[in-house]
Write a structure and sequence with these properties.
Elements: E1 12-15, H1 19-28, E2 33-37, E3 54-55, H2 64-74, H3 81-100, E4 115-116, E5 126-127, H4 134-147, E6 152-156, E7 158-164, E8 170-177, E9 180-185, E10 188-191, H5 212-219, E11 224-225, E12 230-237, H6 250-253, E13 257-260, H7 278-290, E14 295-298, H8 302-310, H9 312-320, E15 330-339, E16 342-344, E17 356-358, E18 363-364, H10 377-393, H11 415-428, H12 435-450, H13 454-468, E19 491-492, H14 494-502
Parallel strand pairs: 1-2, 1-10, 2-6, 10-17, 16-18
Antiparallel strand pairs: 3-5, 4-5, 7-8, 8-9, 11-16, 11-19, 12-15, 13-14, 14-15
Helix pairs in contact: 1-4, 1-10, 2-3, 3-10, 8-9, 11-12, 11-13, 12-13, 13-14
Length: 514
């Protein structure tokens, strides 16, 4: 069946084929779904690279309320308690659902789920598969299920934009393939396009993670929330690769220690030490690097010897870089890993624009707040997928009248502009920020976006939001505003961002060195 065979009155378009998109498509069955993926199914998605696991309160000493409390603590005042509890309560059942799809989670000698510990969790609750290959294992199970579901068709194409009717509702998508655009009308669109880490020079995300879904929603008029909160994973392996390979946080849960070139502990004297929340550890490493120190993850000895079986993905990544973790410490540095902000959605994944839903990293659900708790990302996507499916079932009937027929021109990507965007974001919108640097980023990204660079426009939205938040909270750290003010969400639109950027102050001197 081709994508032209379905009636728009029945069709739901899900854009993105990571865990969020696949789970949503499955939950929508038997309703007809066209699943749009930019790469062949199972490739090009951050889900397949997820090492840690899925947080779920399934242990005998655990409870959803404890998981929710840890989520709130990590979120630095911006996690919504009702969302945290609802998602935590869904966790055990979602693990059962994945097991029913054939996901082979690791088990202990008694056959119970093997549970790992990660930073800022008060219990061992990280459900894992094949050691540190949880994302790949879950993705493979979901792909098999999707391929076996007759109501789901696969379409390999890139997202170019959203179609809007005269009354403002989203009525389909504009897709791109081989340099040409085509329309795909639909009764509902679900964006599950992932994050935007590739806007930065140092990232653990795939190179295609440029925030296209976020920008498409913003152009359609959707409200965005808390987009200044970009999480840096503390322990990307500093081996000269792009994207950077990841040394999972679970290594520190098993006893790995962060040290400098002298063997001194980097996190000494910090509350939580090596198992402090990600933003705290990332800043600790960043500050050590800015003082000229080198930072390593020390797995030497028994842990390093066990890595080929317990953490086979990291062991293989180290081997590719010529590192033997049993006898050599692993060089690490922070790199962009996850975007906490996104398209503002309600409890059922609905955006502020009728006809448009969002799931996974591209959405702002209220779960992560200012700093995502480790291994809550796959959980969030799985928890919202059935709610989105139920919401779409209750949505108003489709009417194609008013949907635009004119197709936009597809402009070629400017690799040079993207390279500059990545450098600007890395330097000025990174782990530690200040007004001069953020103003420099806003000025330069404004110029690049006016030339038609979508990556620059997405980066501009983040930089502008970071400039406006004059405090330090979670993953957003301002050296010129180290304190906190009363917790508040920041809701914005593309129009508000570009208006503010147009009136930005003159370019600071830092811009000349970007």
């Amino acid at each position: 069946m081709t994508h032209f065979a379905r009636s728009p009155a029945d069709r739901v378009v899900v854009v993105g084929a990571g865990v969020a998109g696949l789970a949503t498509a499955l939950r929508l069955a038997p309703r007809p779904v066209t699943l749009v993926t930019a790469a062949p199914l199972g490739a090009g998605t951050a889900t397949g690279w997820a090492q840690g696991g899925i947080a779920a309160a399934v242990g005998s000493d655990d409870a959803p309320r404890l998981h929710a409390a840890d989520t709130e603590a990590a979120g630095a005042g911006l996690t919504e308690p009702d969302v945290a509890l609802r998602v935590a309560e869904a966790g055990p059942g979602l693990i059962d659902w994945l097991v029913g799809l054939g996901t082979g989670f690791d088990r202990d000698a008694d056959g119970a789920l093997a549970l790992g510990l990660e930073a800022a969790h008060c219990r061992r609750r990280i459900v894992r598969a094949r050691g540190d290959s949880t994302g790949r294992t879950v993705l493979d199970a979901l792909v098999r299920a999707v391929r076996a579901t007759p109501s789901i068709e696969i379409l390999v194409a890139g997202l170019h934009g959203l179609m809007r009717a005269g009354d403002g509702r989203v009525c389909g998508v504009v897709l791109e393939r081989d340099g040409s655009a085509f329309r795909l009308p639909a009764r509902a669109v679900v964006l599950a396009t992932g994050g935007l880490g590739a806007l930065y020079a140092s990232t653990t995300n795939p190179r295609g993670a440029l925030g296209r879904g976020l920008l498409a929603a913003a152009r359609a008029g959707a409200a965005l929330r808390d987009i200044e909160f970009v999480q840096f994973h503390p322990t990307a392996i500093a081996a000269g690769r792009d994207p950077m390979p990841l040394a999972t946080e679970a290594l520190r849960g098993e006893g790995a220690v962060l040290i400098d070139e002298r063997g001194e502990p980097v996190m000494a004297g910090v509350e939580g030490g090596d198992l402090a929340p990600r933003d705290v550890v990332a800043r600790g490493i960043f500050q050590a690097l800015t003082r000229g120190r080198s930072v390593y993850l020390d797995t030497r000895g028994e842990l390093g010897a066990r890595m080929p079986t317990r953490f086979p993905t990291v062991a293989a990544l180290c081997a590719e870089s010529g590192i033997d973790p049993a006898v050599q410490p692993i060089p690490v540095r922070p790199a962009v890993h996850y975007h906490m902000g996104g398209i503002l959605v309600d409890a059922d994944g609905r955006s502020t624009v009728p006809g448009l839903w969002a799931c996974g990293e591209v959405a702002s659900t209220g779960l992560h707040g200012a700093n995502r708790l480790a291994s809550n990302s796959l959980l969030e996507a799985l928890a919202f997928a059935p709610r989105i499916a139920a919401s779409i079932a209750d949505a108003p009937a489709f009417a194609e009248a008013g949907c635009p027929a004119r197709l936009p021109t597809i402009a070629p990507a400017d690799a040079g502009s993207l390279s500059e965007v990545r450098a600007v974001m890395e330097r000025f919108v990174g782990v530690v920020r200040d007004e001069a640097g953020l103003a420099a980023a806003v000025a330069r990204l404004s110029e690049l976006s006016e030339r038609g660079c979508d990556a620059a426009l997405t980066g501009l939205m983040i930089a502008r939001a970071a400039l406006d938040r004059r405090e330090s909270r979670g993953a957003h750290w301002r050296s010129d505003y180290p304190g906190q003010i009363a917790p508040r969400h920041a809701v914005t639109t593309l129009a508000a961002t570009t208006f503010a950027a147009a009136g930005a102050a003159r370019t600071p001197q830092e811009l000349t060195d970007a």
